[in-house]
Amino acid sequence: MNGFFVIDKPAGVTSHDIVSKVRRAINQKKVGHTGTLDPFATGVLPVAVGEGTKAIQFLDESEKEYRAVLRLGIATDTQDLTGAVISEREWSHLTAEDLERLVPQFLGLQKQLPPMFSAIKQGGVPLYKLARKGIEVEREEREVEIHSLTFEWIRLPEACFTVRCSRGTYVRTLACDIGEALGCGAHLLELRRTRSGLFREADAISIEALAGAADQEALLMPLDRALDHLRALALTEAGGKKVLNGVVPQAHDFIEPPGDFAVGEQVRLYLGERFAAVAEYDKLKGLRLARVFN
């Protein structure tokens, strides 16, 4: 099998645990995930199998969507319900309107300080390993973008919101920052990813459904569909054979002239119905094969 399963990750397991479960469910070793989810989080976890593992680098996961529940008045060291309480502050003077009024200041480009409990490495060591030892180190703020932020319901001290954001955004930190802007602190009670690039909640299946499926391959997103954001170019028979042997195609190897390439543009190459490769355009070297698929 080659392609992607969109797994609905349950709470209480790591993304790596899901990879192990998929390996056992489909009896295939070549499995990997993209877009790590925290153990307490649920939802969309794309899992690549077979040749899909080679395609992870070409995915467009620049935009993600989450649904989250925050709790005002309590801040934790992990910024979620799994952590130790580090402060408790009064929230009862706040109203739903106070939360709604904050929305505009959290839209657009933002500077976000990654949490200590994260997989970001410093000196080769994941920050969460340092955090577990009680060590806090300086981190650089990262630029993230919040495309939309909507409160689904507000029942203080809890509130549910949906956020559409750039890759690399920590929703835990967003909730914490909202709490600080209100002067009372906050942490996440629930976090569910509803979309990661083109992988959506509506397509997600449980590990149990995958393991019990009579036709597991029918649940697989085809390799090239996962790369649908890349322009598709058809090769001649001779051109396709070249590519499958690792030779860069020339203009005459395409059925139709490919036209101009943008610098850094990646394209899908096909031999008939067969998805053969991803090529990338370099300003100095021209078109090069980034990955050939078996």
UniProtKB/TrEMBL annotation:
Domain tRNA pseudouridylate synthase B C-terminal: 172-227
A GO molecular-function annotation: tRNA pseudouridine(55) synthase activity
Keyword match Isomerase: yes
Keyword annotations from UniProtKB, A to Z: Isomerase, tRNA processing
Record's keyword annotation contains rRNA processing: no
Domain Pseudouridine synthase II N-terminal: 23-171
Active site, renumbered: D38
Name of the protein in question: tRNA pseudouridine synthase B
Organism: Geomonas paludis
Phylogenetic placement of the source organism: Bacteria, Pseudomonadati, Thermodesulfobacteriota, Desulfuromonadia, Geobacterales
